[in-house]
Amino acid sequence: MRAFDLIAEEWNGRRREPMPAIDLFLPLVPTGGVMMDAGCGNGRNARIIASRSRLLYCLDSSANMLTFARKNLRGLKNVKITRASVTKLPLPSASIDAAFYLAVLHLLNANQREKAFSEMRRVLRPGGKAFITVWNKDQQKFHEQRSKKEFPVMWKKEDGSTIARHYYFYTASELRLLAKKNGMRAESVFYELSGRKTEKKGAHNLCAVFSRA
Fold it and tell me: 126: burial class by Cβ within 10 Å (0-12, 13-18, 19+)?
C-alpha cells in the first residue's frame, strides 16, 4: 500500500514494541506450529510470535515496511519475510496453525475484504486459528465520523505534511458473520484497550479469534 511505503520510516521510529492486544492472544497460541503474521509491517509483533513458532511467515504489501522488518528481525532463523497481499497469500492450502491479522483487515476495500477472509480460511489447517484486531470506531477521536462505516485517517509526518490511510470499521456482528460465511467459527469477539478486555465505548480495538473446522 502506497501510504505505508510513504510513512514506513516514521512508522518504524514510533512503533517498535508489540501491540498490547497480542497479550490476550498468546495464551491461545499453540507452540511449535507454522504461523503467519499477515500485514506484518515493520515486524513489531513478529518477534514474540516467532518465539512460539517452528516457522513464521511474515507478509506485507509494503516494500518499505518490509525493509524495516528485515532489519528488525535479523538473526531469526525461523522467519521468512515475503512481499504479498492478504488477498492472495503465497502459501499452500491448510498449511498454517495460527494466523495473525493485527491491524490490517480494516485497511481493505469491499472486494479485498471478501478475498482476504476467503484466503484466511484457505491457508488455515483444520483446527487452526486466526487472531484478528481492527480499530474500534467508538472512540472520542472518531466522534465526528460516528455515522460513517469507512473514512480516511490521517498520518501526520514530522515535516507537517499528512498521508491519508483508508479505514473500514467493522462491527462485532459483522466479524461473526464473516467467520460463518467463510467456513470458520468465531470463538470469541471482544473489545480491547491497553492489552485488556473492555467495553466497546473507548476501546482501541475490536478483536476476534476465528477457528477453521
Answer: exposed
